[in-house]
Design brief:
Elements (H helix, E strand, L loop, with lengths): L7 H28 L9 E4 L6 E3 L3 E3 L4 E9 L2 E8 L2 E7 L4 E8 L17 E5 L2 E7 L5 E5 H7 L4 E3 L10 E6 L2 E7 L6 E7 L2 E3 L2 H7 L17 E6 L4 E6 L4 E6 L6 E6 L6 H7 L8 E6 L4 E5 L16 E5 L5 E7 L5 E5 L4 E6 L4 E4 L1
Parallel strand pairs: 1-19, 2-23
Antiparallel strand pairs: 3-26, 4-5, 5-6, 6-7, 8-9, 9-10, 10-11, 12-13, 13-14, 14-15, 16-17, 17-18, 18-19, 20-21, 21-22, 22-23, 24-25, 25-26
Length: 367
């Protein structure tokens, strides 16, 4: 009679084999977890470290304007539009470079051409039409305001109407693209993320790139604020047919095509992607502002980076921002540092002038 008896050597070999298999299994599980998207990004990422040829600007010139509570501004050709209260109107128009006052327009109210809330001019779409310059922006009471800036200046009164584009009830923000299409955002029902989509002729359309960003959600739910980790300043460039989203609380900038053209990229401002879940676990006291303003141009776009805490600590220093300039392929063109804080900017590309605004101190300056 014979018996199959494991020798001590065989047992040791089996034990080693078992341990190796366990390690491999754990490695596979860990690798799978690492593939889960905890960053607000695509899988095509370019990391931006501090530029060696960064420049520093100083000694700006103050611009004294009679506007209370300036919240935002934008430049189009030789016009500067500034958000802020001025004789009951919400947008004041000036002609550059001398800031000649051209009037204040757009009332807050419930009447024709009026808005429920003062618009942020940095997010309005400005286009040259046959009858002059038009500005388009969302009116959350339902519709898109079409403001004829040129005729308003000529008439010294607001000439505006509401377009036929009607908004869904759950919209929180949006960008006018053309007479039939809008780029809109809404919050998930679980309040764990945000949805972006193209709204055209009453239909919601989502590109494959949008679906990737829409699928990213936070683990911590129910507090009504944490989903803001996924918030961003965003805009659409008709010239390049691209959308850019610059995150407000993580270190990513996402670029993708307007349609399913497989053109997408994430720019990471640093050598490592911010972990969304880790930020949420740390709580809002640890929230840091990343992008605080975004401006687009035909040949490039610019992002203003803060790095300061959302809720500034006692006796802590507020650091001046950094202005990053990228081409539409996501390549860094220039990094600009400053000696003082501001939170809004725009560039007069025709005259190569930079304008900045500190909305806390109400100071508008020129470099």
């Amino acid at each position: 009679m014979s018996f199959n008896v494991f020798s001590m050597k065989s047992l040791m070999q089996m034990n080693i084999y078992f341990r190796i298999m366990l390690i491999l299994f754990c490695f596979i599980i860990s690798a799978c977890k690492e593939k889960e998207n905890y960053s607000f990004s695509f899988d095509n990422v370019e990391y931006i470290e501090k530029a060696k040829d960064a420049i520093k600007l100083s000694n700006p010139i103050n611009v004294d304007l009679n506007i209370i509570g300036k919240t935002d501004f934008t430049i189009y050709e030789d016009l500067c539009l500034i958000s802020g209260q001025n004789n009951g109107r919400t947008i004041s128009v000036y002609q550059l470079p001398n800031f000649n006052y051209l009037g204040s327009y757009v009332h807050v109210g419930n009447g024709p051409g009026e808005v429920l809330f003062p618009p942020f001019v940095g997010s309005i779409s400005i286009k040259q039409q046959p009858d002059g310059i038009h500005a388009y922006f969302l009116n959350l009471k339902g519709g898109i305001i079409d403001w004829n800036v040129t005729k308003s200046i000529e008439a010294k009164a607001t000439i505006a109407n509401t377009t036929d584009l009607r908004l869904p009830n759950d919209v929180v923000s949006g960008i006018y693209i053309n007479d039939t299409s809008l780029l809109l955002k809404k919050i998930n029902n679980d309040r764990d993320g945000q949805q972006r989509y193209i709204f055209s002729k009453g239909i919601e359309n989502r590109s494959s790139q949008m679906e990737i960003l829409n699928s990213i959600a936070i683990a911590k739910k129910g507090d009504g604020f944490m989903f803001n980790v996924l918030s961003s300043d965003y805009n659409y460039s008709a010239y390049n047919n691209k959308i850019v989203e610059a995150s407000n609380f993580v270190n990513t900038i996402n670029l993708y095509g307007y349609a399913n053209d497989n053109s997408y990229k994430t720019v990471c401002l640093g050598d490592e992607l911010d972990d969304i879940n880790q930020i949420c676990e740390n709580g809002i006291e640890e929230f840091k502002r990343t992008c605080i303003d975004l401006k687009i141009y035909d040949k490039f776009f610019s992002v203003l980076y803060s790095g300061n805490y959302l809720y500034q600590r006692e006796n802590s220093k507020i650091h001046p921002p950094i202005l990053y300039i990228f081409n539409w392929d996501g390549k860094l063109l220039k990094e600009i540092h400053f000696e003082e804080y501001f939170d809004c900017f725009d560039i007069d590309v025709n005259n190569h002038v930079l304008y900045t605004l500190n909305t806390v101190t109400d100071e508008l300056k020129v470099y």
